[in-house]
Amino acid sequence: MTDTDYIRPRTRLYLITPPRIEDVDGFAALLETTLTAGDVACLQLRLKTPEGEIDLDATRTVGTAVTEMAQAYGVAVLVNDSPELAVELSADGVHLGWDDMPVKQARELVGPEMIIGATAKNSRHVAMKAGEDGADYVAFGAFYPTHTKAGTVEASPDLLEIWQESMEIPCVAIGGITAENAEALITAGADFLAVSSGVWNHPAGAPAAVAEFNKVLDRLDQSAS
Ligand SMILES: Cc1ncc(COP(=O)(O)OP(=O)(O)O)c(N)n1
Ligand SMILES: Cc1nc(C(=O)O)sc1CCOP(=O)(O)O
Ligand SMILES: [Mg+2]
User: Fold this and answer.
1) Three-class SS of residue 172?
2) Is 143 a member of any domain?
3) Angle CA(37)–CA(43)–CA(48) in degrees, nearest 5?
4) How far does residue 117's CA lie from ligand 1's centre (Å)?
5) Looking at the domain assignment, is residue 225 inside a domain?
6) Span 15-51, pLDDT tens digits
7) What positions does the entry give for 4-amino-2-methyl-5-(diphosphooxymethyl)pyrimidine binding (predicted)?
8) What is the per-residue DSSP string for 54-97?
């Protein structure tokens, strides 16, 4: 290997909240333990109604309870679907899907500093357009079956490989990811692994899940000497 070989930064974990949270104080306590169990780059507040719409009240309540705490651990907090709520909560960013506010419009609303993430599903074309429009990362998925979101489309790890070879904007992998199935996505080039049920529904608990993910990430760390 020569000095000029590019070594991409280590893949990191991007946590997504469960879609419904009954006990906010209990969740905040569990989250704090989870964030100290291993490296976590981001936390997305994704609270949904049974119909799959953003639950604004729940997002506001959970966001108020956890945003400052997560930020104090160096974790970037992103709000799903609502740029307005991201601003209101002093979050670090917003994640936008195909039915959400267009990236360009959201950029005007949140300003130049806030992170904007964009869903690309399995489309490199959509991902490139999102990048041109000002997104800071694009998310490909779903790589594995998931019960967390209905109507996902299947994505192949090739997408990550091609993206990593040709584009500079970071790419996130999402959909049914667990510590057991993550290796193919890490080696294909995911900059981040976005995970919900693989952490919150882990039989040994969320902190153990984060520790397990980090063991896999440590083992495959391409930036380590
Ligand atoms: C990191 C990340 N990637 C993709 C999604 C999905 O966003 P979207 O398609 O808008 O679907 P909902 O999450 O709103 O149901 C995401 N939230 N985060
Ligand atoms: C929110 C979301 N978006 C997806 C997409 O493919 O765009 S898959 C998904 C669900 C992520 O949760 P889990 O880790 O429990 O599968
Ligand atoms: Mg959305």
Assistant:
1) strand
2) yes
3) 125
4) 9
5) no
6) 999 999 999 999 999 999 999 999 999 999 999 999 9
7) 44-48, 80, 119, 149
8) B-HHHHHHHHHHHHHHHHHTTPEEEEES-HHHHHHTT-SEEEE-
Q: Where are the alpha helices (DSSP H) in 167-205?
A: 183-188, 197-200
Residue 46 is assigned to a structural domain of this protein: yes
What digits encode the pLDDT tens for the residues 161-205?
A: 999 999 999 999 999 999 999 999 999 999 999 999 999 999 999
Instruction: Give distance in angstroms: CA of 84 to centre of ligand 2.
Output: 22
Q: How many domains, in total, are found in the chain?
A: 1
174/166 Cα distance (integer angstroms): 20
What is the spatial distance between Cα 196 and Cα 26, in angstroms, rounded to a whole number?
Answer: 17
Which of 138, 143, 126, 146 is closest to 164 using CA atoms? Answer: 138
The tokens for 17 are 């909240």
Domain enclosing residue 136, as ranges: 12-219
Q: Which residues pair with residue 16 across a beta bridge? A: 44
The residue among 150, 140, 139, 206 whose CA lies nearest residue 178 is 206
pLDDT band at 127; cut points 50, 70, 90: very high
What is the number of the ligand 1 atom nearest to the C-alpha of 139?
3
Question: CA-CA distance, 97 to 54, in Å (whole number)?
Answer: 12
CATH number at residue 207: 3.20.20.70
Residue 14: phi and psi, rounded to 5, are -125, 105
Whether 3 is covered by a domain: the verdict is: no
Please tell me the distance from the alpha carbon of residue 124 to that of residue 201, in angstroms, as a whole number.
Answer: 31
Average pLDDT of the residues in 79-104: 98
- 133 labelled ligand-binding: no
